[in-house]
Design a protein that fits this description.
single chain; 147 residues; alpha+beta; Yope Regulator, Chain: A; six-stranded antiparallel sheet; 4 helices; 41% helix; elongated
Length: 147
């Protein structure tokens, strides 16, 4: 890796750390991997990952394991909510519901990005409860990186 690319990565990592500090979080305590931080909010766990080769930051939370069979009402709910969660994506991967946010590293901003991340943290904590209580989804423990 050339020196300029290394500097670009360092700037993004420092920006992420400042963003976490702006959320009153201690980035050094949240370090989860080389470019990853693990944040808990209520019953939700969110993994914040920087992927330098792709040029984006991904924040994802595995909310719940889908019930079997998956109720059509749950799918309808996820689709409706997906339409209303501007910038966030609810998806199903490996029979788990995921809430995610992608931010291009060039768009990271110390003042604006914390608001969006805070919204993701709150939505993750909100949606996991709804999916368990209303649709019979099951709690899971997030123990691995999502990316």
């Amino acid at each position: 890796m050339d020196h300029n690319k290394r500097q670009e990565i360092d700037v993004v990592v420092l920006t992420i750390q400042k963003i976490l500090q702006n959320l009153n979080l201690a980035p050094e305590d949240l370090k989860y991997g080389y470019y990853e931080w693990k944040v808990s909010r209520g019953s939700a766990t969110i993994i914040l990952s920087y992927i330098p080769s792709q040029g984006f930051v991904c924040a994802e939370s595995i909310l719940v394991a889908c019930p079997e069979p998956m109720p059509s009402e749950m799918i309808s709910f996820l689709l409706r909510e997906n339409h209303q969660t501007h910038g966030f994506t609810l998806s199903i991967r490996d029979e788990k519901v995921i809430l995610s946010l992608l931010i291009y590293d060039l768009y990271l901003h110390e003042k604006a990005t914390p608001k969006k991340l805070n919204e993701l943290f709150d939505l993750a904590d909100h949606y996991d409860n709804i999916l368990v209580e209303q649709f019979g989804a099951q709690w899971i423990e997030t123990s691995k990186s999502l990316t």
